[in-house]
Design brief:
heterodimer, A: alpha/beta, five-stranded mixed beta sheet, 17 helices, 11 strands, globular, B: mainly alpha, 16 helices
């Protein structure tokens, strides 16, 4: 009894010591070898994306005689925050458009992009999205725009043809009504600014003035945009994914619960879960002020004062090369971030041409430092758009966003 | 009083003198006790210090500093900002304050519903499985305790399926001819729905004043949202088994003779329960209520899995808000400040509970008992050691 307890204590002590040693090794006292192994943290859309990034990283690693570990984060934002606060961020990571300004303003990021030889190969709108204080920080990895995704079978079943693809709001309403049946809703998209904002922009609205100093959320144009969404929702031809028992509108489309959804090129991932789904992609219908859509992008983020910056920059160069970006497109449907590669993409995948076309007039959603919290609050109110007054929630957004903008501009 | 006649260490009374323990012959056989005590508790103190005390102190520092989440919070670029972070979530009047108010509102209603219900259910179950006539008692004990040993994540996942808008629960409701709500997407407050039955519209002018934390009375009085009700049900389901076990242990400590005595005195089952059993369970009741209040104010896992504050922020709780402010928005100071406010809320509620549940009868008895004892000691009883 006594003896066994002694052994137990010894074992426990060894265990604790080993655990502590394992933890402490994370702070990095490894000898500085010429080719350090690198880590990449990505927010992956699925197995296809993770495998493609790993393959790309492996081919670079082979040429540079090192190893690269690709980790797909289950919650990218949280894992990045944890990495930075622990003084142990990944060497390279996906930096999303909505958090970029916050990270840059807190000096988390290395502004390496401005010094790269291929800095002018990217779409100007994407460069702008990853510019903070007039410095181009990180190279965009790809981009996505929003389009109208139509379930071809439901479309045909409702007696509609290619000529009926909606060009404006009135036509959208008409076809949505025709497509709505007992167990299918005509139109669905996430109850969030990143979708409904397109309606506001199509009505001629925007959230921030061109000079970036004043918030213009409560304008008549924005109210008109949200009122249109509210109209569709009250008519019952628009339902949000949660009401359809789906996690996102793509799932609702795949399950046949929604006939049309507003999503991006990532919709191609549906073929894994719903191999029989047939869909066509159209540009978003125009509003009273013309066409508009959103463009979203991630960039390859490198932590500030990274010890492996030279190696990572070389890795990023290989990852943003046209040929590599087109490989990513083939694997998981994203559109290349360089103008030349995107043109090749449009001809290779004519079905997705509408997404590329959308980038001609697309804008980036509002994402200045600190805006994310305000937009999250706005989103929480948009969930019940069918019952609330658009004017009231835009007025609240106006106040909150202006406060956040003043803070971001250092007033 | 006569307390100066009580024997005290260092001032041994005449009756307390024993050979070898008077201090005039060195420390004796038990002299090194203090040193060995420290030696043996050192590992525990070390572990608690490193993993509990230091992180708490560090978090306290973060809550009064402008640390941006980069590098160590103790590096030279981080400066002291006083109560700025606390003011930001408590009085600044912006979105941060409103979010905090919303989270407090949500969690308050959550606690108000969960704690009494889970305690009552746990006690009811314990009394039932403690009955001597019940067949298969151990089966029921295991069955009721089972949800508590299962991982919260697994059970929450199952609930997400059950209460999906086209899930099992709504299918059953539909089969019975009703139409279930879209549980996790329904932000309407329970009391708002009830008020709606009586024709009270949204935001009645009588309740449009905003007393504190940026929420109007109407918003404070919303009650838990439909989505929160599912989480309330889920938590009651999982935790009442644990507390049943605590009550069961206490019930088994109540001797049969007490029950028999009450029966002889002519008490019926209800009288026996409320006048005999329940008072004897008071310490356990305090434990269960305290653990319940602490656990419910800290709810995080279920929120994280079921929507992260959705719908319309009605499942946002302070614990989740602290996480979100820190890890997502990188406002580490705000996050730490929220954690400490939450800590203060929990501590003050526990103290309040202790005062309310104080056993006044017992205290009175204790006082008279010690008076009696003191009186007895005052009378000389020779060289006897008390």
């Amino acid at each position: 009894m006594n003896n066994s307890r002694k052994w137990g204590t010894a074992l426990l002590a060894v265990g604790v010591a080993a655990t502590l040693a394992a933890c402490s090794s994370g702070t990095g006292s490894t000898p500085a070898a010429a080719n350090k192994p690198l880590t990449i943290l990505i927010g992956s859309s699925g197995k296809a994306e993770t495998a493609a990034v790993q393959a790309a990283a492996d081919s670079w690693a082979k040429a540079n005689k090192t190893t690269v570990t690709v980790t797909a984060a289950s919650d990218l934002g949280q894992q990045l925050g944890q990495g930075f606060s622990g003084g142990n961020p990944p060497d390279l990571f996906y930096m999303s458009w909505d958090q970029f300004q916050t990270y840059a303003s807190k000096k988390y990021l290395e502004p390496y992009a401005a010094a790269q030889p291929n800095k002018n190969a990217f779409y100007p709108a994407l460069k702008k999205a990853f510019t903070y204080n007039n410095t181009f920080y990180c190279e965009p990895k790809d981009f996505s725009t929003l389009g109208l995704i139509i379930n071809s079978d439901k479309w045909a079943a409702a007696g509609l043809t290619t000529a009926d693809i909606p060009k404006d709001w009135a036509q959208l309403e008409t076809v949505a009504k025709k497509l709505t049946t007992a167990d299918t809703v005509g139109l669905s998209f996430g109850a969030e600014y990143a979708r409904m904002g397109t309606f506001m922009n199509q009505a001629g609205g925007s959230l921030v003035s061109k000079d970036g100093k004043t918030v213009t959320a409560d304008t008549a144009a924005n109210v008109a945009g949200l009122t249109e969404v509210k109209k569709l929702a009250t008519e019952g031809v628009l339902k949000f994914p949660a009401a359809l028992g789906a996690g996102w509108s793509g799932e609702a489309l795949g399950k046949g619960k929604a006939a049309m959804v507003i999503e991006g090129p990532w919709i191609s991932g549906l073929k894994l879960d719903y191999p029989n789904l047939k869909y066509t992609v159209a540009e978003l219908p125009a509003g009273p002020a013309g066409k508009s859509t959103f463009t979203f992008s991630n960039c390859w983020g490198i932590p500030a004062q990274s010890k492996t910056a030279t190696e990572t920059e070389s890795l990023v160069k290989s990852l943003t090369a046209d040929s590599q970006q087109l490989k990513f497109s083939a694997a998981f449907g994203v559109i290349p971030s360089t103008i030349s590669a995107a043109k090749t993409y449009a001809t290779t995948y004519p079905a997705n041409a509408a997404f590329v076309k959308g980038n001609d007039y697309a804008v980036s959603p509002v994402a200045f430092a600190g805006a994310a919290t305000v937009i999250a609050d706005f989103n929480s109110k948009l969930e019940s758009i069918a019952t609330v007054d658009p004017k009231a929630i835009l007025a609240a957004l106006q106040t909150n966003l202006q406060t956040a903008l003043n803070t971001a501009n250092g007033k | 009083m006569t307390s100066n006649t009580l024997p005290r260490p260092g001032n041994p009374g005449p009756g307390n003198r024993r050979p070898g323990r008077t201090g005039d012959r060195g420390r004796g056989i038990r002299g090194g006790e203090g040193r060995y005590g420290w030696l043996f508790t050192a590992p525990a103190i070390g572990i608690i210090g490193v993993f509990l005390v230091l992180p708490i102190l560090l978090a306290l520092w973060v809550s009064v500093s402008d640390w941006g989440g980069l590098g160590s919070p103790l590096n030279s670029q981080v400066s002291f900002v006083g109560g700025k972070n606390f003011a930001h979530v408590l009085t600044a009047g912006g979105l941060a304050e409103k979010d905090f108010g919303t989270s407090i509102r949500n969690n308050f209603w959550f606690v108000v519903f969960v704690v009494p219900l889970q305690t009552a259910l746990a006690l009811f179950l314990a009394v039932q499985v403690n009955r001597r006539v019940l067949r298969g008692r151990s089966f029921f004990r295991t069955a009721f305790y089972f949800p508590s040993v299962t991982s919260a994540v697994a059970i929450t996942g199952i609930f997400a399926f059950l209460f999906a808008s086209t899930g099992t629960v709504n299918s059953v409701i539909a089969a019975l001819g009703g139409a279930g709500p879209t549980w996790f997407a329904d932000p309407r407050g329970l009391f708002h729905i009830v008020a709606g039955f009586f024709g009270v519209g949204d935001n009645p002018p009588a309740l449009s004043a905003s007393p504190f934390l940026e929420l109007t009375w109407w918003q404070w009085l919303s009650g838990p949202s439909v989505a929160m009700c599912v989480i309330i049900f889920l938590v009651i389901f999982t935790t009442s088994g644990t507390f049943m076990l605590l009550f069961l242990a206490a019930l088994q400590n109540i001797g049969v003779e007490v029950e028999e005595a009450s029966l002889i005195d002519g008490a019926g089952p209800f009288r026996k329960f409320f006048s005999v059993t329940l008072p004897m369970l008071r310490p356990t009741l305090f434990t269960v209520l305290t653990l319940g209040v602490i656990g419910t104010w800290q709810i995080f896992d279920q929120i994280y899995i079921l929507g992260q504050g959705k719908p319309a922020k009605t499942t946002l709780t302070p614990a989740f808000l602290a996480y979100q402010a820190s890890f997502k928005d990188l406002n580490w100071g705000d996050g730490a400040a929220i954690s400490f406010i939450l800590f203060a809320i929990i501590v003050s509620l526990t103290v309040l509970q202790r005062i309310i549940l104080r056993d006044r009868n017992k205290e009175r008895l204790d006082r008279s008992m010690s008076r009696l004892l003191a009186a007895e000691k005052a009378t000389p009883v020779g060289g006897q050691h008390p």
